[in-house]
C-alpha cells in the first residue's frame, strides 16, 4: 500500500476537509448561494494577499491571471520590462510578445536573483518603460528575489509593478500593498491548497486607471474590466469554477486559522530542513538565493534524475519535480507548499536517503534525517 504524497511545486496536496467541502451538493452559480461564497473568498484573499485592493478571480490557472494582467496593463505606447531567470519569468515575456506589446526581456542566469540596483539603473537608462514584471519565487529554479526592495525602486520611478506571486502567496512573507505591488498574481493549486483551476489578481487603483483606459485590449474572456464590473456584485462575467471557490473558502479558513506568520515560519523551517538534509548527504542546493516554497537539489555525479524521481514515486508514493529546459536531468525539486508539515518533510527526506543509497550514492545513512531533525528542534 502506497499513499500519494505530493511534493511537486504544484499541484500541491489538498486537505481532506477541502475535498469533502467540494463534494457536497451544489446550486446554480447565478444565485445568492454562489455570490455568498464569492464575497467571503474575496475578503479572505485580501487578507492572505495582504492587500486592500480589489481581488479578481479568474477561472483558469495562474497563467490565465497573468495574461489578463499583461494584456490589460499595456495599451499601445506602453513598454514592459520583464526579468527572466527561469521558465516562468520567460513565460511573461512570451505572452507580451504574442500580443504585440513592446517588451524588453532581460535574461539573467538561472538560479540567480535579480539585483534591485539593476532595476534602478535600467529604469534610469530607459524612461520609456511603463511597467516592470517579474517572478517573486521562480519555481523552476527555486530562487527568490528581494521583492520589497525592487518594489520601492519601481514605485519611486512611477512605473506599474506586476508580480508573479504564484508560489509565494500563502507560503512566503509577501505584503502586496506595503511593497508597492500594483498587480499581484497567484493561483489555486499552490499554497492556497485547492485543485488547479483558479487564478487571482489584486489590482491597485493606479493599475485600474491604465486598464480602464486601455480601449484596444484584445482580451475577451480575460478582460479585467468585465471581471471588475461583475466582481462588484460578487459575481463573475463567465461561468465560474464555483465548487473550487467553495473549496477555496475552506482552505483559506485553514490558512488564516493557523495565522499567516505561522505559515511563513513553517514553510521556512521545512525548506531549511530540506536544504540542510541535502547538504548533509552530499547534495548541492542549486539556487544562489533559495526560495522557501520549493527546494532544488543538484543530481549527484553518476546518478540520473529520472532514477531518483522514479524511486521516490514507485517505492514511497512521493511525487517530485525535475528541472526544465537546460536544467532537465540536472536538478530535482521538492515543494514545501500546500497541505504539508514537518513530519511529511521528514518522510520525504528519509525516502530520498533510501533511494539514493540504493542507487549507490555514498553517504552516511541517516545523516540527512539527523540534519533535518536538528533544524526542526532548533527552529520550531
Structure commentary:
The structure is a single chain. The protein has helices at 16-22, 32-48, 62-72, 87-98, 116-125, 147-156, 205-212, 224-231, 242-258, 260-280, 305-316, 342-359, 367-379, and strands spanning 5-6, 54-59, 79-84, 102-107, 131-135, 137-138, 143-144, 160-164, 183-187, 198-203, 284-285, 294-298, 318-319, 321-322, 331-335. Helix 9 packs across helix 10. It is globular, with a radius of gyration of 21 Å. The chain has a seven-stranded mixed β-sheet, sandwiched between helices. Strands 11-12-15-14 form a four-stranded antiparallel β-sheet, covered by helices on one side. A two-stranded parallel ribbon has the order 1-13. The mean pLDDT is 97. With 380 residues, the protein is of the alpha/beta class. The chain has two domains: 5-9 and 259-379, Aspartate Aminotransferase, domain 1 (Alpha-Beta Complex), CATH 3.90.1150.10; 16-257, Aspartate Aminotransferase, domain 2.
